[in-house]
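W.,

You were right to be curious about this one. When I first looked at the sequence I had no strong expectations either way, so I just let the prediction run and decided to look at it fresh. Below is the sequence, 190 residues in total, followed by the output.
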Amino acid sequence: MRDGYQTTIEYLKLKPEHGRYFTEVLVTKLLSHPEYPDLASEAKKKIYESILEIFDNAKHHSETMQIYTCGQYFPQKNSIKYTITDTGIGIPERIFKTYGRKLDSRRAIEWAIEYANSTKQNASGGIGLYDLKDFIAKNQGRIHIVSADGFYELDPSGERFLLFDKPFPGTIVNMEFCTKSAPVSAEYEV
């Protein structure tokens, strides 16, 4: 199907080793699109690094064979939605395998969105979800994280956690950026 309005960010089914292609699409299709919020270069770099870390988390921590991404601009709603999904072991299982800590899905997601929490060994990390959550809150956007049977949502009305009856096999990070919000800080200049 043709995208006559040029509002879609193509659906990709990537192998974990296709990070270079993901990076190219992230820069050319999402962050450089005219509808994307006008940010200072440092803020745009920070968002780029945060989204790239989500892909890298799927690549290095989820034990997945596939990573799926897609997005769409909604010009009349002043929003951009972008999703990264893997079919790996999920956040709770990764924390257990790395630290031997058995956390329910809610606690595992809470842990994952805290500053500097990471399952990377002997390497820095743990700021991607934290920075992304911070930016989206200031941008008046929305983020959903699904992992195992846990669901987390942050939107302008606050944060919510829910539990599903059945687990999702992997992790989904769904981001929605507001394209016409008022400036939130000098740091982000949205």
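Here's what jumped out at me. The radius of gyration is 16 Å. And, maybe more interesting for your project: The mean pLDDT is 88.

Coffee later to discuss?

I.
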